[in-house]
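Shapes recur. One chain:

:::
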Amino acid sequence: MRILLLVVYYLPSTMSSAKLIHDLATEFHRLGHDPVVVAPDESISDDTEITRDNGIAVLRVRTGKIKTASRVLRGFNEAILSTLIWEKGKRFFKDNPCDLIVYYSPTIFFGSLVQRLKKLYRCPSYLILRDIFPQWAVDAGVLKKGLAYRYFKLKEFQNYRAADIIGVQSPANLNYFKENGLDRQYQTELLYNWATLKEDNIQPGNYRERMGLQGKVVFFYGGNLGVAQDMDNIIRLAKNIENVQNVHFLLVGDGSEKSRLASDIVSNKITNVTIHDAVGQQEYLSMLS
C-alpha cells in the first residue's frame, strides 16, 4: 500500500513533527508499505525536489518561509500551502497514486489539499492532530475572538472535514471534541505520540563539560519555545531559586519566543538558565544519555 504523509516540517528539520513523521514512514516501510512524504521547503531552488532515502520517497515543494517568518508572514504562507503544494506537485501526485493519506496538524491549512487528493485517489485520510488551534491561542491570550479567529476556525473545521478519522494526542483533547459537540461530526480516537524503540550509535554527550554544568542538577527541556509552552513559567521558577547553587535549567529548542526569552534572561541577570539551539535527534539523545 502506498501511503502519502503530509507534514509542514521534515528532516533535516529539528522540529518534533519531522522526527515523528520520519519514524512513522520508516515503520510503514518496515511493514512492507510504500511511504511517500510531502513537505514544504523554503530552502530548495527548484519548485520541487524528489529524493528517496532508505525506502522513503520525499517530495519537497518550494514555499515561502514558515518557521523563521514573522507571525503575519507565517500565517499568510501557511494559508497558501495547499494551493502551492497542489499546483507545484500536481504532476507528481497524478503519477504516484496513493491508497491512504496521513496528514499532520499543525498546520490547519492542509484541508483543501487533502480534499483534492482524496478526490483524485478515492482513498481515506487520517489526521494526526497535535494542536487544537486557534483555541489554544485564545486560551493563551495571544488571539482574540475577532475576524482572524473566525477565519482560523473556518480552516480548522475544513481540516477536520477532510479526515475520515482524527487521532488526538490526549484524553483531554477527546473531551474537547465531546464538550463542543464535535464528536458527533467527526470520528476521533486517541493516538499518543510514538518513538522508535531503538536508536543506533548513541554516544554519551559532553554538554555538561562544554557548558560548565558538572556536578549540577540539570532540569532539561527539549522542544518548541513558543507561546503555547509558557516558558516564562520556567524562567520565573529559575529566578525564584537562584540561591540554590547546584541547580541549572537547560532549554533546548527553537520557536517564536526564543529571542525574547534570551533577552529576558540577560536583562534580569538570571544566571541559572541556558538556552541551547535546537539539535538533531541523535545529538538530543546523546545529551540525555
